[in-house]
Please model this.
Amino acid sequence: MPSPSRLGLLPRHLRRFEPVIQAADPGQLIVLDMHAAGEPVRIALAGYPELAGDTILAKRRAAQGFDHLRRRMNHEPRGHAGMYGVLPVAPSSRDADVAVLFTHASGYSTMCGHATLAIGRWLADCADGPSGSGRSAFKLECPCGVVDVEADGDVTAFLSVPSFLAQADVTVETGRFGRIACDVAYGGAYYAILAASALGFRFEATDPAALVRTAHDLLVAARSQVMLDHPGEPDLAFLYGVILTDDASPADPETRHVCVFGDGQLDRSPTGSGVTARIARDVARGLPGAGTERRYVGPSGLAFTGRCHDRLTWHSRPASIVRVAGRAHYSGLGVLIADDNDPLKNGFEIHA
Model:
């Protein structure tokens, strides 16, 4: 793959719009919209200042100094509660070809699998060379570490950072369900994982809105009770989301789940880092069939595939490298404008 300095901002079939980017005012955000399995990805092509920092996590902290731009890009009236963003930044790791930060409506995440799949297609389509030139591979630096990404048309796959079961059968006290047990697993971000049936729900027969409310309640409770200690970086030690699964066994070829993250956002996709965490959890527990390739279906009805690619010891604990694959598609290209006298120029949120 060509070096990042030789990449255009737009994929080949959209390069006729490059004059729009070149003519944009400094205060305007130029964004490329994509989705993977229905979950949006808004890539900031221009309008963000260069973020200072010797490490990717330092750049992540620096981004918080320009948080009005995150809100402008993700929040209403230009975005919505489920909007996800990508900020391309200069790599800090010598191993990386490209680096990114991930944003969402309530902050900044450490890993985003669905966005990584979209980034893979975007970068491959921006590379020099004839259309349809084939597969592209590169190393992408994320806040959680460097991941290997491979794109072939609209199908992208990535290999995760070392992922692991952090806490098994941890007890969380909830007002509604009493004391419940869940697993906490890391797939670039930390997730609490349990079957919806453990809470008395039949996954397939339950209103998705009820599952979302329940997962958010559990997320709030677990964040106040589960103490996390990432072995490599303190900035990564926080509970990002809750995953409620069906009752499929790891040997079944397909499984469904919902993931709620941030301040209660629902991931429309199967959540790439959540799939990673589930697989790492199942492998660590030694469940029959764990780690073999299967389909993980999210709320949109579309799937990512995932399997254990390798096993290793990482910081004195067993861990897995997980391969996640899915399709990404383009959905828009725009200039986000903020009028100086607009009281909502930096966005707003409504929590129903």
